[in-house]
Task: structure prediction
Amino acid sequence: MMLKVKEILMLRRGLLITAVLFAPLGAQGQDRPVQWQRTSDATEIPITVFHSPQSANLPTAETMLKGEWQFEISHRFIPPFKNGPDALWGLDGPINNRLGIAYAVHDRGMVTLQRTNLNDNLDLNAKVRLFEAGRESTPVMVAVVGGVAWNGDAPSLLDGSTRPWQYYGQLTANVMLGERFALGVVPSFLRNPLLNTAQAQNTYSVGIMGQLYLSPHVSVLGEWNISEERVGQEYDAGTFGIELETGGHFFKIMVSNSVRLNPAQFMAGTPFSFDPGEWRLSFNITRLLQL
Result:
């Protein structure tokens, strides 16, 4: 009997010591945060107005993520729709085409190299996104673009020389109105709009672009570039069409009175009026690449 009493006393003493030793640990365990509780702020969704870095022809303020590439192939069919079935409404060609490659050196900056067969125009430009705001209200984005173009097939002047270089700068300001309509304004400056004049000229233009997003994958777009009138560039360039977007791929099919592709060519104007008889089919295809 005495042995059992001693065993009971020793067991009680052991339980008391265990409780004293582990009580602080239990208290500390109650103060620990729940494991699934967020320990840092959620990553903010980037402000976006236009989904693509380019409208039909004008630049948007959108850029790509650092390290991303974008490949482009675009066509402007030269014959107008009015040529009818004999020319397959212009699809028989000839065409002006462009191949381009862009690379994002930063989340806010990208460089683009593009070539079109019109005058063998090789264009290099850079875009920098300067500003964005309005995450909780009206999204706004602003970017600048600067570029230089070299024309391998520049026409010869009266003295036998050529003037193949062109330079330009653009400011693009974009705003999202409501949840579906993007609007942009693009004032531009261009040096040497006409390659065949005795003296290089300066010209200014103002582009206006809009895009209505009907669904996550389908939208309609339009743009108008107000330019100075000159010989061979008498009219403003207008474009409207539809954009299909899926997984980094943009396909734009459009109607326009302009057949010029690269910025130094397009922003100067067009020899064709915006009369439906002068409308021509065009398309842009871009693909986002992550190498």
